Structure formats: structure tokens, C-alpha cells
Amino acid sequence: MDYNNRDNHNEYEVLEIGKKRKKGLSFTKIIILAIIVSLVGGTAIGAGYNIVNYIITGDLAGEKIDRDSSFDKSGEGGIIEDSEKNFQKDSQLSTEEIVQKVGPSVVAITNRVQSRDIFMNQVIQEGAGSGVIFEISNEGIMIMTNQHVVDKAHQLTVAFNNEDRADAKLIGADPDADLAVIQIERKDIPQGIEKSIKAIEFGDSDNLFVGERAIAIGNPLGYSGTVTSGIVSGLDRELHLADKNLKLIQTDAAINPGNSGGALVNGRGQLIGINTIKIADSKVEGLGFAIPINYAKPIIQELLSQGYVSRPYLGIVAGDIDEEAAKIYKLPIGIYIHDVMSGSAAHKAGIRRGDVIIEIDGDKIITMEQLTKLISQKKVGDELTITIVRNGKETKELKATLLEKPNN
Fold this sequence. Notes:
- This protein has 7 helices and 22 strands.
- By secondary structure, it is mostly beta strands.
- It has a 6-stranded antiparallel β-barrel with strand order 9-10-11-14-13-12.
- The longest helix has 14 residues, at 293-306.
- It is globular, with a radius of gyration of 23 Å.
- The chain starts with 11 loop residues before the first strand and ends with a strand.
């Protein structure tokens, strides 16, 4: 068996939703498929199938988007009066017109990751994803994508809609939001490419309505420039993935492996979301999700300015103690502390291994999902009053000042 050339299709991050939430999905035992780049092992760069094909042909002039104007925080949410819901039917484009408009802004991304096989030989694995051009300037071409598309990258290659390719470098990434920015420096831009690409036009994801057209363009399974059409099926869909909570746009436009980081646009060809997740189950179909562009804008801006996003951090490794576990181990229902990070907010507050968190700021917090959501709504420097049970019987109130989450 040739282990160096074996297929290693880690295409999905698989999680289960086991209970109904007030906001979000109410499915039982549904698998969430984060459209993670598919990996193909090889002894040298280029091994495996040809992942990066060609996007959409076209000859649209490029344009420069002013960075400050591109990231205005338009739309504050809230209730929109019917009279203010301007559907702009007269400005709707046909699907063909949308493809011609948006295609030059969508690119295919190949991520080459160094790893080792079972004999500890170094191999190169390739993964395919998508990206969206949002700025073209004298500094180069700026592209937004998902963090998981560029995770652990040794080399990033971008394929444009005219078959040209260029190397890119990572500017910054935020795993909590699953967003990243990569750049093609001016010196690496293929000659004459400006005639075939353009920066995307931004829409307003705060002003979407259910039933509105939604078009997804990306690189599923290496088929660059794939276009799928549907509608906005739901808004503010709350999903809990690993240690993060995301509020996403739901669409029935097909989103498949490799679509991650691609564009979800409205009927006017304006960017409303970054494709990121698909839910797959034998009993459901057409459940795709995208990160709302209004949520992404300030994060992208922060990645541009400092390469990371400042987020609060408690600094614990913990797990849930449910009712059954509480009876078995004679502990209170709550969050059991397995470990405390040295120098973290939890460490400085006096939280110890074996403690059980039962309340924060007077509110019952008994699951890691609740804790993660609470911390995500706080800022660095905020103080929390944490109620813990120590040794199964002693109750204490501790003060913790949230610190900035380390970049790693």
C-alpha cells in the first residue's frame, strides 16, 4: 500500500445537536457539516486530484473599494416597518447577470498543509475552499474567506476566473467567527488580471427578509465557479459549534464541501454572507448557512488592522455535570473545572481544578454552551462574579476580570 498517496478525506467537522433551543434549530441528532476543506495526501505538492479548476470566465474591469467605506457598520437591526422594507424588485438581476457581476469577485483557494504519515514521512495535503475579493489597491488584492479554509496553511494558492493563479499570504484569522483575510501582494499579481477581477459589492444583511433570493458561488469539491440558487430560508439561526456560538443566515441554495468562504449574494448581486456550514441528515435537505456580512465587516476590519480579533477569555478547561452525573459523583449540577490556564482570568480569580461553576453574576450557568455564549457577549476588562462549589459542599463567590484571549 502506498501510504504517501492515500486519500485522507477529512471533509467535514461533525457535531450533533441533541436538544431544542429557544433560538435556533430544533432538530434531533442532526449532523452539522462545517464545510472544511477536503484533504488529499501526497508525497509532493500537487499530489492527488486537481482541486483548483477555473472559476467563471468574464472580462469585467476591476475596481478599488475604499477600506473605510467598505466596512461601515450599516444597519443596527431591530424592527423594520413594512413601508421601509424596500424589496427593490426593479433592480433585481437575472441569475445570469448575477453570475457575470459576482463571478469576477469569487476565487478558488488551495491550502497546502505539511503533515506526516504513519511512518513519520513528511507529506503535503491539499484542501480546496473559496474566497471573496473585497479590496483591490496598490498594496495588492485582499480576499476574505473562512478560517477553516486557511487553517495550518503552509502555502496558499488563489485561482482566478481567467485560469491565472497566484500565491497568497495570511493577514489574520479569527477561529471564533470562522473568518480570515488573505492577501496577494502587488508583486505576485498576474499581469493583466485587473481586467478579469473586481471587488465585491456589499449588501446589507440586517435588511434581509425570508423568501428573498439567495445565490451561492464557490468551489464545491473543486468545481470552481459553481453557482446554486435558492432563497433566504431563515435569519439569526443560532448554532453552537465546539466552543463558539454563531448566528447565521439559513439558505436552501446548495452549499457543499469546498463552498466554504464563497459568496452568498442577493438578487442584486450584493454580498450578504460568507458560506460556511451545511447541515446534512437523511431526513432533511437544503440546510445551508452563511455568516452575515454585517457581522463579518468589523471582524474583517480588525483582522486587517492587527491580524487578530481581541476577545475576552476566562481560561478554563471544563465540562458539563448533568443531573445523572451529579447523582453518580455527588456533585452539584454545573460546569466542572478540569484545568485552569496559568495566568488566566480564572487562575487570578482563584478558581481551581475540581471546582464546579453554578452561577455567574447571579444567573444560573450550568452548561459550557451557556458559559461560552455569556463570555462572547462580554468585553476584555469586564468583571464577573462567579459562584463555585468546592469539594462538593463549600460555596464561594469569586471575582474574575476577563483578559484578552491569547492569539494561539
